[in-house]
Amino acid sequence: KQRLYSGMQPSADSLQIGNYIGALLQWRTMQDEYDAFFSVVDLHAITVPQDPAQLREKTRRTAAQYIAAGIEPSRSTLYVQSHVRAHAELAWILSTITGFGEAGRMTQFKDKSQRQGADATSVGLFTYPILMAADILLYQTDVVPVGDDQKQHVELTRDLAERFNARFGETFRVPKPVIQQETARIYDLQEPTSKMSKSAESQAGVLWLLDDTSVTAKKIMRAVTDSDGTVRYDRAEKPGVSNLLTIYSALTGRSVGEIEDEYAGRGYGDFKKGLRDVVVAEFEPVRQRALELLDDPAELDRVLSVNADRAAEVADATLAAVYERVGLLRRG
Ligand code: TYM
């Protein structure tokens, strides 16, 4: 079986629908076909200020949502990044073969640091993509399913793998990003030209997996549309409606054309009600299951611990080879 690796940051109490559609849905189907590793990347989350108690809780909540959405921890290796020490260690080694300019070209860093200002931006945020490369390369990964905002980071990962292999001898498998084009980007419901994000300033346009049904329903009914009145996909002219169509299509498996036909000659109200029912039906069982899992944190922690052992076995073998190749003296 080929190896798959992906992860999410525990940066909020709940995942948002972009994470669900852009990543989790793919993960769930791909775990049948691949030897899959899914991490909750808590070391990435601390690149921006975090409250320690909340971070711990968000980490558990993120793991619970993976399982609730159908990731099976008995088959796929679902673990917490900081439980496997090799991640931070390989990130250091990789940082020594990464160009300063190369890291500076990462668009996600440029956007975030511009918004925050240089003094509020940590060096950890700058080296964040290198830690992500370490995540992926430790597991000799073949494929990395992500939304398109992560594509540049996976490309950096490929470059670092090739560079290391060329300099020190074949060590890493060179991974490929897998991006589901139609759903690679889900937009904010209130601002349908910006990507939906866990760290959005306003909550009004973000659909959270763990929100109460009534809150989710309200947000959908209030989603921004346009004055044209027809349910039709047109990203440039009708970003709001197009985004809702993408969500509808992703959750039902029906084509956008079919959904347009169904709502031909009907208003946005009907269309939104239809979408509301689809989203609520999809989210509700996941939400229930996640809350059940969170009722027994000891059991959840046990599962994560068993999986961390499985992950560490693979990661430690890669790290040992890396130390050897680089020329670090082994302790006698
Ligand atoms: P994160 O936590 O921001 O997002 C997790 C996954 O969700 C996707 N995603 C979206 N997809 C579609 N529409 C959206 N609006 C949307 N928002 C988020 C992301 O593309 C991602 O696939 N750096 C990563 C986490 C990471 C990682 C890794 C991923 C760390 N190490 C190794 C893969 C492999 C991140 O911050 O994702």
UniProtKB/TrEMBL annotation:
GO molecular function, one term: ligase activity
Subcellular location(s) of the protein: Cytoplasm
Annotated positions binding ATP: 9-11, 18-19, 147-149, 186, 195-199
Gene3D superfamilies in the record: HUPs (3.40.50.620), Tyrosyl-Transfer RNA Synthetase (1.10.240.10)
Enzyme class name: ligase
Highest rank taxon of the organism: Bacteria
UniProt similarity note: Belongs to the class-I aminoacyl-tRNA synthetase family.
Protein known as: Tryptophan--tRNA ligase
Organism field: Microbacterium marinilacus
